[in-house]
Write a structure and sequence with these properties.
single chain, 277 residues, alpha/beta, TIM Barrel, 9 helices, 14% strand, globular
């Protein structure tokens, strides 16, 4: 299907944007109060704007406080319908179960399951402890384990990288959905992407489109492991966001690298008319 109007409208999140924030690094213990206060301010600002919050799990292999640790440390109230906790395979089985049990206790609903970046300071999950049969724990293993260990308790999602070779990546996404993935979040998308279009048409699950909100496009391409193309040398995140809204008008948009000193009302079109807390 080539026309936007022909696309299925599969909706899960009823907020305009899902905004990413990071928890403090564990190495910042000497500045923990300052770092946690900054996290709390950002979490509260996102919720007050009517948006959802996504909190990565030790991104780039850097040990950080978990989403639930930070929320509890700051004395914040968890908003279960608008908080997405990322969870990857770089934990011990004991720590993984501890995170999931704490999520149940606190009433968390949404989990984004990814394999993760890994790193020398992080543990690696033994696949056999969660029912995996390969040499490494996969996203599919973790999705199935969560579904079996906590049936009906969480709504789990999975990631899609449109820059990986097709049809390999689309087939991998199919396996993630079959393992329990109920929504999909893409890697950052620049303009209309044919691979994103294909999965929207092919999968009957909500697809959240990621928008890179920093002008540092070199960091973007480093993170997705691809070379920058000529058309992207003058990348403008605000112009790209407008194009994504035009191309994917019914999809929730995930904002990574969004500045908290910016006037969001001036740069985020969907905030206009959004009900705020």
């Amino acid at each position: 299907m080539d026309h936007i109007s022909d696309r299925k409208e599969t909706v899960m999140f009823d907020f305009p944007y899902l905004i990413e924030i990071l928890t403090p690094k564990r190495s910042d213990s000497h500045q923990i109060e300052e770092r946690m206060a900054a996290f709390a301010g950002r979490y509260q600002r996102i919720l007050a704007s009517g948006c959802g919050v996504s909190i990565p799990d030790n991104p780039m292999g850097q040990p950080r406080y978990s989403a639930l640790e930070a929320i509890q440390y700051c004395g914040l109230s968890l908003h279960p319908e608008r908080t997405v906790m990322n969870l990857n395979t770089f934990h011990t089985k004991e720590d993984l179960d501890g995170l999931l049990n704490k999520a149940v206790e606190m009433g968390l609903k949404y989990l984004l399951i990814v394999r993760g970046d890994g790193g020398p300071d992080l543990s690696k999950l033994d696949p056999g402890t969660i029912g995996g049969k390969a040499n490494v724990a996969t996203t599919m293993d973790l999705l199935r384990y969560i579904s079996q260990a906590h049936p009906g308790r969480f709504t789990t999602g999975a990631a899609f990288n449109p820059y990986n070779p097709m049809p390999f990546e689309a087939d991998r996404l199919r396996k993630k959905v079959e393992a329990g993935g109920a929504f999909v979040i893409t890697q950052p998308v620049i303009g209309k992407d044919p691979n994103v279009d294909r999965i929207i048409d092919a999968f009957d699950v909500p697809v959240v489109i990621e928008a890179w909100m920093s002008k540092n496009v070199e960091l973007l391409f480093k993170s997705i492991r691809r070379e920058k193309e000529e058309r992207e040398r003058d990348f403008d995140p605000i112009r790209n966001l407008a194009l994504l809204h035009e191309t994917y008008p019914t999809n929730c948009v995930y904002l990574s690298m969004l500045g908290f000193k910016q006037d969001w009302m001036a740069i985020l079109p969907r905030l206009k008319g959004t009900k705020r807390d």
